[in-house]
Design brief:
By secondary structure, this protein is mainly beta. It contains four helices and 56 strands. Among the domains are: about 190 residues, 3 Solenoid (Pectate Lyase C-like), CATH 2.160.20; about 70 residues, Immunoglobulin-like (Sandwich). The chain is globular. Helix content is about 5%, strand content about 35%.
Length: about 550
């Protein structure tokens, strides 16, 4: 019989939502089991397998169980436990963690270092099949959070899927480091195929590589194919490398309803072809909102963004210092390249981008007539690069072409100086633009129906008074399962309004609370990330909340 261990100190710090039996895995023999898989095999739905520090050389399979498997990070929130609790491929195993038996979002992997996966020789019939090095998800929808999926490697060309593979899934990938996963054919950091409602939130996806071999490779950071309703928000996607192909940061093919929101996308490099930051092809309803693109490079077309036969909304991005630099023939569209695509573009900065051939900021190829509204574009319309047969007939309204005056210091160097012409110069009508409530620095985006151009909102203009959020208002737990508690100090409490919006800014719930301490049931809302705003008199609290 499994011995369930409880410790007085542990009970004090375990979150109330950690339910079921706690099964202890410890390599020193003092727990219930010495391997993670033994703990899973003996767990029941709702249990937690709590893994003590150690180097676990094994393949971990959830075998269809909706359980939590976690390091002591779960109970302590001490991140040092992540690097101490290792699922190790020992340079001989791959798909180190597997979800292939219909697990739901009640199956959670939390707080591990997943490393040293390796796959060398592959029989030729299996090439191009998504294999996966670190985490493999197929037909399941788990939550992968607060892990470090690093230093995994293919020793064979044309092996698809690097750090995480997601197929036929609605997985949630939250707050992980996905780093140095090398030599995949497609999807160096994350590979997504035939999936719906996938969440990629607050991850660092960096220094992953894809290798084209004698072909063409796709998506060094993230690869998305034939998928729908994907939210990619608040991630850092940088320093990923594609030696020859499409999509240094993100590649999107034959997909729709993809939202790319408030991300840092930088220093991604393509040795050839298109889309240093993002490449989209044969896709629709792609929303690229509130992102910072800088120092991305595509040797051919589209240093920042490349659109091919796609329908795209681009709003409130800063796109700067990107380049398409191969040659005068293959070096077009430092900031943006469009082929048979006519995106609608609002409130976006295109400045200091470079193309060796034509169109430092914007290059338009065949059948492309994008519309530009309230943008700041270096050189203006006259500096657009145009294909040989292209005559631009798009709308070009209320745009400027003046140095945006970036701050170029501090934590957010592409924020705006006080004298920037972009301040208060965005489109005052943000209807349908899905503007998030906060910018990359956490500042409120739209105040008194005024918005800036670019990814940042300048917060110190003298003619606007901004409310100060109060740290005394608490919302917990966060992440939450079904219920959250809202606490407002009684001395400051007035009847409070609580508004919850999705990450596109659409209101989903508004309630009035008449008690300074209240628990509220949010089980009617779909799982995902929301903005909760609490107003009590002059006090305002705004923060993101995750429902899992």
């Amino acid at each position: 019989m499994t011995i369930i261990k409880y410790f007085t100190g542990l009970l004090i710090i375990i979150p109330f939502w950690l339910y079921g039996n706690i099964i202890i895995v410890d390599q020193n023999g003092t727990g219930d089991y010495i391997t993670i898989q033994e703990g899973i095999n003996n767990a029941n739905t709702g249990d937690t397998v709590l893994v003590y520090p150690g180097n676990y050389i094994e393949i971990v399979d959830f075998i269809g169980k909706d359980i939590v498997v976690a390091s002591l990070f779960l109970t302590t929130q001490d991140t040092s436990y992540i690097s101490q609790t290792i699922i190790d491929g020992n340079h001989e195993n791959y798909r180190l963690v597997r979800f292939t038996n219909g697990e739901t979002d009640n199956a959670r992997l939390i707080g591990f270092k997943i490393t040293n996966a390796y796959l060398g020789f592959v029989d030729k019939p299996y090439l191009w099949i998504p294999l996966g090095l670190g985490v493999y998800i197929n037909g399941s929808s788990p939550v992968i959070e607060n892990n470090r999926i690093i230093n995994n490697y293919y020793g064979e060309w044309y092996c698809t899927g690097g750090g995480i593979v997601v197929e036929n899934s609605s997985a949630k990938i939250i707050n992980n480091i996905i780093n140095n996963n090398d030599n995949a054919y497609h999807g160096g950091g994350i590979y997504i195929n035939n999936s719906v409602n996938v969440l990629i939130e607050s991850n660092s996806i960096d220094n992953n590589t894809v290798n084209s071999g004698y072909g063409v490779s796709y998506g060094a950071g993230i690869y998305i194919d034939s998928s729908h309703y994907i939210l990619i928000s608040n991630n850092t996607i940088r320093d990923n490398y594609n030696n020859y192909g499409y999509g240094g940061g993100i590649y999107i093919l034959a997909s729709d309803h993809i939202t790319i929101l408030n991300n840092y996308i930088s220093n991604n490099i393509l040795g050839g072809c298109e889309g240093g930051g993002i490449y989209t092809q044969l896709s629709s309803d792609i929303s690229i909102i509130g992102n910072l693109f800088y120092n991305n490079c595509a040797r051919w077309f589209g240093g920042g963004i490349s659109c091919n036969n796609s329908e795209i909304l681009i709003a409130n991005n800063t796109i700067c210092f990107n380049k398409a630099d191969n040659s005068s023939t293959f070096g077009k569209g430092g900031g943006l390249y469009c082929y048979n695509s006519s995106p609608n573009i609002y409130n976006t900065i295109f400045f200091f981008n470079f193309a060796a051939g034509s169109g430092n900021q914007v290059y338009l190829d065949a059948n492309s007539d994008p519309n530009f509204f309230f943008c700041n574009i270096e050189g203006g319309l006259s500096a657009f690069g145009l294909g040989d047969t292209v005559v631009y007939n798009g709308l070009y309204e209320n745009n400027i072409e003046t140095d945006p005056q970036f701050l170029l210091s501090g934590d957010h160097p592409y924020n705006l100086n006080a004298s920037s012409p972009c301040i208060n110069a965005g489109n005052p009508d943000t209807t349908g633009l899905y503007i998030p409530e906060v910018d990359l620095a956490g500042n409120m985006r739209v105040v008194q129906d005024i918005i800036d151009i670019g990814a940042y909102e300048y917060q110190f203009t003298s003619n606007i008074t901004y409310p100060n959020p109060s740290d005394n208002i608490l919302v917990f737990p966060n992440p939450a399962n079904d219920k959250v508690t809202i606490r407002i100090p009684e001395i400051e409490f007035q009847k409070a309004w609580v508004t919850i919006t999705d990450m596109k800014g659409n209101p989903v719930l508004k309630i009035q609370i008449v008690n300074p301490f209240v628990e509220y049931d949010l089980s009617s809302l779909p799982k995902g990330i929301y903005i909760i705003k609490i107003m009590s008199g002059k006090l305002i609290k705004t923060e993101k909340i995750i429902l899992y």
